[in-house]
């Protein structure tokens, strides 16, 4: 892996790329665009981790019966596992300066790449709507009571929520667009300068809880309510759910690592994920357990907690903190991938800006207020369910890049629709990848249908597969793809071009 910035770039301008496969957003990044240092990559993860859903994670496991340390250990273990595909998938982004949709062309085919990128985009749009609703909820809960008790706060059946809540949702929706409209530079600046603010505000919340609760004795006294067998039956679906939490980013991380200065920067920056996740889930668990001592009842929602603390200064800080936490998570995790997927779908019609705008509009179409109110187990069903879509994509891409391609790509062939190109396969589709994708997804469907109540009962085997959906789909699809590719044989028709970063001696 390279550890220094190259002064040269792929000879992208030495050939004419197919205009239907490229525009300024899809071209490999140039050396002067490689501005992400290790600290800025770490700042990205701080912004991603610090948010309302992460705050809930450990607390939800404790509510299900785990001891506090078991909940945190489960989350850290999941993120250590997630770190592996993150770093491995990030490598081609840094080496060749290419985004996730372009990388997917090498394994799925020039046209087949639309399938994995649009699946990733669909999940991103759903999450965008959910996170934006959370941000709007923060605005709503912190409004004066006089406004919240007015006529506009009454729910409308046809809308599914109140006009006031919907208005707060739209205000937060518009606020995010001001950052998105500046493109990747705006996102980088937001993440860089938000990280220290979020760390300070999180520390203040933790100190407040410690002082007012007289320490964390109550949290430390929480022991497991589960037998050994019950723990393991809960551990594996919880591990899968927490891996799925970042399964989205583990696919499209090249969208960010393509801007990294070096492989060392992208690796060092990403190592912070399990550290930040462990630290912030500890904060969520410690503060939540402290509320029982301070207020006499458990307040698991940080937005409601900040409203309960009261005071003008607290309200202002709460609005700043929750807005920053939600925006930094939402934009980086749920805008970049769908926007790039739409650009890849039609480079002549979409730019990053227009793709991001359509992503935001689709986030509204998902009606997240209905999704969030549909089931108490929404997060687990949502997370584990979509891991069956994203897991096999990750397995196929990594098997192709490392086992089939040998970490060597032809940049020229990633941007040509010529039948003689390395990644044209059969009419632009790699049938081996398509078959492997189906093999990874189909066995998970029965367990999912039982989970959502469509099927009354399925054989235990399908329940086990569903509880381990990411693991099953990732490894089964990767193995099937590797086997089919070896049986078919991979014919290289051109020499790989020089990477953006040179290979170390």
From TrEMBL:
GO cellular component terms, semicolon-separated: plasma membrane
Residue intervals passing through the bilayer: 44-62, 68-88, 121-143, 163-181, 193-211, 231-251, 271-295, 315-338, 350-367, 379-403, 423-449, 469-487
Segments for region (Disordered): 1-29
Bilayer disposition of the protein: Multi-pass membrane protein
Keywords for the protein's UniProt record, in alphabetical order: Membrane, Transmembrane, Transmembrane helix
Compartment annotation: Membrane
Pfam family, one: Transp_cyt_pur
Annotated family: Belongs to the purine-cytosine permease (2.A.39) family.
Name of the protein this chain belongs to: Uncharacterized protein
């Amino acid at each position: 892996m390279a550890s220094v910035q190259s002064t040269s770039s792929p000879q992208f301008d030495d050939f004419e790329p197919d205009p239907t496969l490229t525009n300024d957003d899809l071209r490999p990044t140039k050396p002067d665009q490689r501005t992400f240092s290790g600290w800025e990559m770490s700042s990205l993860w701080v912004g991603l981790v610090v948010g309302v859903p992460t705050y809930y994670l450990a607390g939800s496991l404790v509510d299900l019966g785990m001891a506090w340390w078991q909940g945190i250990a489960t989350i850290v273990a999941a993120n250590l596992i997630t770190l592996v595909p993150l770093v491995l998938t990030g490598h081609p982004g840094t080496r060749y300066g290419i985004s996730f949709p372009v990388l997917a062309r090498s394994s799925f085919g020039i046209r087949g790449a639309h399938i994995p990128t649009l699946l990733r985009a669909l999940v991103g749009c759903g999450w965008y709507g959910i996170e934006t609703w959370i941000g709007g909820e923060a605005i709503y809960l912190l409004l004066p009571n006089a406004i919240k008790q007015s006529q506009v706060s009454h729910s409308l059946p046809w809308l599914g929520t109140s006009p006031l809540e919907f208005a707060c949702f739209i205000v937060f929706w518009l606020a995010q667009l001001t950052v998105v409209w500046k493109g990747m530079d705006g996102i980088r600046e937001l993440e860089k300068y938000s990280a220290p603010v979020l760390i300070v505000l999180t520390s203040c919340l933790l100190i407040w809880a410690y002082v007012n609760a007289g320490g964390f004795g109550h949290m430390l006294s929480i022991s497991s309510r589960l037998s050994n067998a019950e723990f393991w039956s809960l551990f594996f679906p919880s591990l899968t759910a927490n891996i799925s939490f970042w399964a989205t980013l583990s696919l499209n991380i090249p969208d960010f690592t393509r801007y990294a200065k070096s492989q060392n920067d992208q690796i060092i920056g990403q190592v912070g994920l399990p550290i930040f996740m462990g630290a912030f889930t500890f904060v969520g668990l410690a503060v939540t357990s402290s509320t029982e001592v301070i207020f006499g009842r458990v307040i698991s929602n940080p937005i409601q907690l900040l409203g309960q603390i009261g005071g003008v200064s607290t309200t202002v800080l709460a609005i700043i903190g929750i807005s920053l936490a939600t925006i930094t998570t939402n934009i980086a995790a749920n805008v970049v991938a769908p926007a790039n997927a739409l650009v890849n779908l039609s480079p002549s019609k979409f730019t990053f800006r227009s793709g991001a705008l359509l992503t935001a509009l689709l986030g509204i179409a998902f009606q997240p207020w209905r999704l969030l109110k549909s089931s108490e187990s929404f997060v687990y069903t949502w997370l584990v369910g979509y891991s069956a879509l994203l897991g096999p994509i990750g397995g196929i891409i990594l098997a192709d890049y490392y086992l089939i391609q040998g970490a060597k790509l032809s940049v020229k062939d990633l941007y040509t629709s010529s039948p003689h190109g390395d990644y044209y396969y059969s009419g632009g589709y790699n049938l081996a990848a398509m078959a492997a994708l189906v093999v990874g997804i189909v066995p998970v469907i029965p367990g999912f249908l039982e989970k959502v109540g469509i099927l009354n009962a399925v054989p235990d085997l399908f329940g086990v597969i569903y509880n381990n959906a990411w693991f099953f789909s990732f490894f089964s699809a990767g193995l099937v793809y590797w086997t089919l590719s070896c049986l078919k044989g991979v014919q290289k028709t051109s020499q790989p071009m020089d990477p953006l970063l040179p290979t170390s001696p």
